[in-house]
Fold these 4 entries.
Entry 1:
Amino acid sequence: MSGDDESRDLVAVTLVWRGRVGIFKRGERSGSDRGRWRCVHDALGPDDDAVAAAARILHAATGLVVRDLSVLRAGPVLQFAEDRGRDRRIHTVLARTDQRRLQLGEEHVAHRWVRREQLARFDGQVTWLRPVVDAVLADWQPASVAPVDRHPVTA
């Protein structure tokens, strides 16, 4: 994480491509979560907007820009107790892309596109990965974010 590791609030982005979730492996030399699988995230300042922060984080971690995303929307905010006894608020964001290939930033050494049900197979993931992904995908109502049909069929 490039922000303050001690920050109480995080923004975590669940990136989806063709129904698969993007997970990212931190490098062994990176700050926290070394060598662990996770979604991209960073500290969220008290005056930061979660969706704007997510766009910045996605660009730094994957090379994606807003025009590469078909969906970018806030999800639920989760309370999460860490191993060290700290409580964190995780502001979740859903992002959908049609871009399969990503340009990983310096913090990550690998990424995979996996089906939601396959997440458990990845050893060495952060403890909050699956709860965040589950909450974001459960909250997502595809009809509410579908593009507007500019040529409706009339009977």
Note: Strands lie at 9-17, 20-26, 37-38, 40-43, 69-81, 87-97, 108-114.
Entry 2:
Amino acid sequence: MPSNELQSCRSSKLEARSSKPLFTAPRAWAERLAEMTTMRLTDSQRQTIRQLVTDELGSGSTVKLFGSRLDDSARGGDIDLFVEVDAPVEHPAQLSARLSVRIMRAMHGRKVDVLLSAPNLNEQTIHRLAREQGAFL
């Protein structure tokens, strides 16, 4: 087989193969991989946020980023955080505001919104959306 024909044959086989995924990952793994690649925060910023939340609420808390910071094509925007704790929270508005200010200062003035979820707080649609669509820091 001449070199050009061989190259053409290889090329068409590669094109046919490229339209199908070689490996289909489990959905949860694929979603986690997507979360890791689409977050518009640096590693240092993520670590700082996690540390501030842990300092304020303890190690039983989780933090997810949601909103525009998960969109690689977007620019700027505030930082929307979903913070979930496993114990009841007294004065949730004050806690959310305090956490927001601490993180905002650490992010050099970037606006930070903190959505808090705890067993004693009413669940709203925004909580469900943030829990489902957010990416763990």
Note: The longest strand covers residues 79-84.
Entry 3:
Amino acid sequence: MTGESRDLTLDVGRDELVIRRRYETLGIVNDILIGIWFLVGSILFFSDSTTYTGTWLFVIGSVELLIRPIIRLARHVHLRRIRTPMSVRAATGLRSARRVDAEWR
């Protein structure tokens, strides 16, 4: 290394940052719920009388695990949608453009 500072500058729009934060928050809440379902389900397995309820909490936790990639996919699609310029949207029939072509030049 020569001692030079190599800064990386990324140009992302305000909308993209807001969307990323919202999906990140949604993912964190989902992960917390997964932990709660599995922790409480595990505790309920200590008693024979609550095993049935514990099993259902494991099922709910498993569904939450399936939701995790759905959240990531939704974020990816959402970000791709706002990154697509207006002219491309018009040509392909996509709706709800939030940015104008000038932002992409």
Note: Residues 22 and 75 are 9 Å apart (CA to CA).
Entry 4:
Amino acid sequence: MEGFSIQKHEIIFEGFLVRQANYLQEWRRQWCVLTPEYFCSFKSRSDYTNPTTVIRLDQCLSISSDPASDGPGASFCVTTREQVMWLLAETPHLRNNWMARLGRQLLPCDEFA
């Protein structure tokens, strides 16, 4: 998405994940960033311009894990109407951390009242 950028102060959570490419279905290590409005992936760390993927969190339908992937890597899935994006974290702990942080951003504030 050319021209799109994230400001450092907007970032809630960031780190490397392995992401399955949309078209070639190859797995690529990407720097992923979560903000209050977006989940983005970038080719490199600390360059928050021209993301390879941008998901508006208000378009997200679900976040789910693959219970069979509790080995050395741990996969999870972010689903929107337009795409299903599989991601792989280095450990189940990191997967759970990403899923929890994504989930908190998806819940309306009044859910916590």
Note: The mean pLDDT is 85.
